[in-house]
Amino acid sequence: MKFVYFDIGGVLMKDLSDTNDGWGILLKSLGLKDDQRQKFNDYFEVLEKKLDLGEGIEEFVLKMKNDFGVRLPKNYSISDDLVNRFFHKNEEMWRIVEEVKNKHQVGLLTNMYFGMLDLIKNKKLIPDIDWTIVDSSVEKCRKPDKRIYEIAQDKSGFKGKDILFIDNRQENLEMPKKMGWQTYWYDSSDYEKSNWKLSNFLR
């Protein structure tokens, strides 16, 4: 192993992954009614793919107003809202990253909405180090599509078993496994336990 890619949300940083219906909390705070939830879920399943490609931010605001009767504040950004209210430091992961970067090159392989990674960095939610960055909103492809892993491989300068990828979604680990990468599933339902297990795995 010579290069380690980390996912951000639910690995390097705490997000809604360990929150019981975290999206429901966000949506209720915006004014979405319970009986609108299924319709919204169906819509968001399609929209999230656009958001991960750096598109759809304005569409989200219009859709909430026109189809769900939810008037969001002027200049509302779902990226800003998530980062400011629902994303938090995964403190122990900073120590893990510090140890890893002393032995291996490190990178970020992440699905992000437009501008979200800069917001995360500015809020100091992840370690400020010299990462190799593969951001879906910049690359215009997303996990679990093969293309983003090919880009990540090229950017790392390594192939196959020389790369380890750590992610909290099993579906995002299937393609890199097929490409010969080492993979590690991080269980974001229990950050404390998962940090301990990951730390032991990396020793």
UniProtKB/TrEMBL annotation:
InterPro entries: HAD-like_sf, HAD_sf. Pfam families: Hydrolase. Gene3D superfamilies: HAD superfamily/HAD-like. This is Uncharacterized protein.
